[in-house]
Design goal:
Blueprint (H helix, E strand, L loop, with lengths): L23 E5 L9 E6 L2 E4 L1 H5 L7 E6 L4 E6 L4 E6 L4 E6 L7 E6 L4 E6 L4 E6 L4 E4 L8 E7 L2 E6 L14 E6 L4 E6 L4 E7 L4 E6 L11 E5 L5 E6 L2 E8 L2 E6 L2 E6 L5 E6 L6 E7 L2 E6 L6 E7 L6 E9 L1 E6 L1
């Protein structure tokens, strides 16, 4: 496993990255093993990589998650170096914490309360709690996890996607399940779900859980899908398709990225319809919600710098195309 290099770096053009104000932060994963994850700031439709100049170092290798923990603080997970970074809204490091030892790959996180977040460790089969105020990391006692990936918190429960690490651990116990962990009783149970689950979304409005699962490239039926459960984890709906990432609600509709399209689910009509089709050769990587407008993380070909596509209010037209780094993953708007 290659490690993140935190060697001091000070680009020559740092004066050019000073934006009058920032509207959003964009986390870009970079390429695994290339030490080229990046954090971009966007203000008045102008974008710059801001992390390196603010901190005099690289962000690291494979940045997989960023969440907002207060009005002015954010946490980034850098997976290969297993670093938990707390930053301010200008991208400046407030604190850095590293998970020590070999055999770790911190992947996704969610907020538990004002001081605690939960973090999955794909390689170590663990879920951590991290007290970001006191910088303390602990493991939850959840036995028999299997390559935990996505994680979400709702109704005093953590739901964890046991991916099985794709084809590598697909036949192990609890691969392709979700773990339901009750925070109060500290008890856990497993529910079978789609093959290689990667992301979990909790819908507060309907008290439903949405599980996005991918596929196994070695299997003939490798389409993937999205499964919707009620609050008792009874399956309500199952849609097949190449879904990626999380789902987002606007009014009575939920939106998701499915292959080359953005699709919509209506609460009262139990079907999926297509809202916007990607007619380009670019690869769309994620969607998200920015002040009730959808944005698309455009990864182009997963090797070149990408962009953020901001849609109009009807989600049928691209209003802005803003350049960022390689494999944009998460956008946070101020």
């Amino acid at each position: 496993m290659s490690a993140c290099s935190n060697d001091n770096v000070q680009p020559n053009n740092c004066d050019d990255t000073v934006l009058p104000s920032l509207d959003m932060l964009v986390l870009c994963e970079g390429l695994y093993g290339y030490d080229n994850a990046s954090l971009w700031g966007i203000g008045n439709s102008i974008s710059h990589e801001i992390f390196t100049c603010r901190n005099g170092r690289k962000l690291g290798d494979t940045a997989n998650d960023m969440i907002q923990i207060s009005d002015s603080l954010y946490i980034i997970l850098v997976s290969t170096s297993n670093e938990i970074l707390t930053i301010d809204k200008n991208g400046t490091i407030v604190h850095s914490f590293q998970v020590k030892g070999p055999g770790h790959f911190i992947k996704q996180s969610c907020i538990l309360n004002d001081t605690m977040i939960a973090i999955t460790d794909l390689y170590a089969d663990k879920v951590y709690t991290f007290d970001h105020k006191h910088k303390q990391l602990d493991s939850l006692n959840i036995p028999k996890l299997c390559a935990p990936d996505g994680i979400e918190f709702g109704k005093n429960q953590l739901v964890i996607a046991n991916s099985g690490y794709g084809v590598f651990r697909k036949d192990e116990v609890n691969a392709s399940t979700i773990t339901i962990y009750d925070v109060k009783s500290k008890s856990s149970r497993f529910v079978k779900t789609g093959t290689n689950p990667q992301n979990v979304t909790y819908d507060n409005m309907t008290s439903q859980w949405l599980i996005q699962y991918a596929h196994l490239t070695t299997m003939p039926d490798s389409l993937g899908g999205l499964m919707i459960y009620d609050d008792m984890f009874t399956e309500m709906q199952h849609f097949r398709g190449q879904f990626m990432g999380m789902q987002y609600r606007i009014g009575v509709n939920r939106f998701a990225l499915c292959g080359k399209s953005i699709v919509r689910f209506n609460d009262s009509i139990k079907k999926m319809d297509t809202v916007f089709i990607n007619t380009s050769n670019n690869q769309w990587y994620r969607i998200g919600l920015n002040q009730n407008r959808l944005y698309i993380c455009n990864a182009r070909n997963y090797m070149l710098p990408g962009s953020i596509l901001i849609l109009d209010a009807s989600a049928t037209k691209i209003d802005q195309d803003i350049s960022v780094g390689i494999n944009p993953h998460t956008v946070i708007h101020f």
